[in-house]
Design brief:
- The C terminus is likely disordered.
- The protein has a single domain, classed as Mannitol-specific EII, Chain A (3-Layer(aba) Sandwich).
- The chain is globular and about 35 Å long.
- With about 170 residues, the protein is an alpha/beta fold.
- The chain has six helices and five strands.
């Protein structure tokens, strides 16, 4: 399993239009709705924006990982966008952000979400892959790069599922 399994080329924006967190989260929320990953972008947008202003998600590598966990979402997914210029990201941030991964998390999902976050953390530490994503001219090339980022093995999920089953009996 790779990061690309949670997105698609239609959810990748190589040229974000917005200059700040609010406009970028709106743009990526609308992409999630357009690709039918969320049913209504506005409640998702508000939840993601509120969470972002409470707990900033910017990282040292010039990446940000805002997210919202909502009931009614069918599957874990993310939209990603890249800005040509550094973005003004949140009121408390001193770091510049050029790439944003907006994550839609079903309310009942924790295991898949943790695997995805582990993959994103792996990406943040892989400067060569971050540079490749930042240099890719089109969405399809960004998606191909995301296919190279492996997630931790599904054994974690299987072990947790087995543990829950034995605890319930």
């Amino acid at each position: 399993m790779t990061l690309a399994d949670f997105t698609s080329p239609g959810l990748i924006r190589p040229q974000l239009q917005g200059p700040d967190a609010a406009s970028v989260i709106q743009e990526l929320s609308q992409a999630l709705q357009h690709e039918k990953r969320i049913s209504d972008w506005l409640p998702f947008y508000h939840a993601a924006l509120n969470h972002e202003f409470l707990v900033g998600s910017d990282m040292e590598a010039g990446l940000a990982f805002p997210h919202a966990r909502l009931p009614g979402l069918r599957e874990l997914a993310f939209a990603v966008g890249r800005s040509k210029e550094p973005l003004a990201w949140g009121s408390k941030s001193t770091r510049s952000v050029r790439m944003v991964f907006l994550i839609a998390v079903p309310a009942t999902d924790s295991t898949q979400y943790l695997l995805l976050v582990a993959g994103l953390a792996r990406l943040a530490k892989a400067s060569q892959l971050v540079e490749t994503l930042q240099a890719a001219p089109v969405a399809s090339q960004m998606w191909e790069t995301l296919q190279q980022i492996k997630l931790p093995s599904g054994q974690t999920h299987d072990t947790l599922k087995k543990w829950r089953t034995t605890r319930v009996k």
